[in-house]
Write a structure and sequence with these properties.
The complex is a heterodimer.
Chain A: H1 4-17, H2 27-39, H3 42-76, H4 84-88, H5 96-108
Chain B: H1 8-16, H2 20-42, H3 46-61, H4 72-98, H5 101-110, H6 119-133, H7 137-148, H8 153-160, H9 164-187
Helix pairs in contact in B: 1-2, 2-3, 2-4, 2-7, 3-4, 4-5, 4-8, 6-9, 7-9, 8-9
The chains are: A mainly alpha, B mainly alpha.
Chain lengths: 112, 188
């Protein structure tokens, strides 16, 4: 049984010399072409375009969010035991009656 | 062509400041190192060419992160090995999805075929390629680095980010698989 070191010595040249390991001529040229192409790739243009659009739309979206929250707060108020957050999100107050009402609605829509 | 005697460090500095001719000189200087690794892993053909190009493109993108603690040769070999392993995974996934089981092995063996050579050397190449392609990808990486690229066990461990003991055990298992297949060539 050959030792690993002997096997490396015996198989190394066979494996190493079995095929020519070089790229087709002009490899460096093709690499540089791809680098130039990828430097001007649309991914970069797209990311900066998306960033511009985000910066344009973000303040408008934030203003709409504030307006809707204010509308909900003014419309529903917090008098019925709701927290300010629930009121701002326009959530209906949850009581035992409303919970049962939802449950009944579920069963009455079923096969019964 | 830029002077071959310019040290890597200086070429790297120039490449970092946008000198494409300097980067091209580095590509020309290390093209053979990368070719030995990717063709050792994948066989010659368009897949190896693509992985070779991708290796240098990744290197270009990480020029500012390369700290020169490792040698450039080791750094590029590490990228080339990782991309080759990814490519083998993709190849296997594609074949398992789109090709009937019995044909998978045949196609894997054929994928490394290059231009026609003399019949004898072609036969040797195919036997060796066949034997390497039958190794698990992790064993193939060790065989490529140790037997083809000529790295030491310590360097191989450093490139693969493994303990030396793991490299030795993978190499040992790989050699045991290769030996019976390459025995006729050892006796020739």
């Amino acid at each position: 049984m050959m030792k690993d070191r002997d096997l490396v010595d015996a198989l190394g040249p066979i494996v190493r010399d079995a095929e020519e390991r070089r790229f087709e001529p002009g490899f460096s040229h093709r690499v540089m072409e791809r680098i130039r192409a990828e430097a001007g790739a649309p991914v970069i243009v797209l990311s900066s375009a998306l960033r511009r659009q985000f910066l344009r739309l973000a303040p408008i979206a934030a203003a709409v969010l504030v307006a809707l929250s204010a509308y909900s707060l003014l419309g529903l108020g917090t008098s019925s035991g709701q927290s300010v957050l629930e009121a701002a999100l326009g959530l209906e107050p949850l009581t035992v009656e409303t919970a049962y009402a939802l449950d009944q609605g579920f069963y009455t829509d079923g096969d019964d | 062509m830029m002077n071959d005697r310019i040290p890597d460090g200086e070429l790297l500095q120039r490449a970092r400041s946008g000198d494409q001719a300097a980067f091209r000189t580095l590509v020309e200087r290390y093209e053979q190192v990368v070719a030995a690794t990717v063709i050792g892993m994948l066989g010659s053909g368009p897949e190896a060419e693509d992985v070779g190009q991708e290796t240098f493109i990744r290197f270009y993108a990480s020029l500012n992160r390369f700290r020169e603690e490792a040698s450039l040769k080791t750094y590029l070999t590490r990228i080339a090995i990782n991309l080759s392993l990814n490519s083998i995974k993709r190849r296997k996934r594609f074949l398992s999805r789109h090709v009937e089981g019995d044909l998978v092995e045949t196609i894997e063996l054929d994928s490394g075929a290059g231009p026609a050579d003399r019949a004898e050397s072609r036969e040797v190449r195919e036997v060796v390629r066949h034997a390497i392609d039958r190794l698990a990808p992790k064993q193939r990486a060790v065989v490529t680095l140790r037997l083809i690229d000529g790295y030491s066990t310590r360097e191989t461990a450093e490139i693969l980010g493994l303990p030396e003991g793991t490299v030795l055990s993978r190499l040992s298992r790989a050699l045991k698989k290769l030996q019976p297949q390459l025995q006729p060539l050892m006796e020739a």
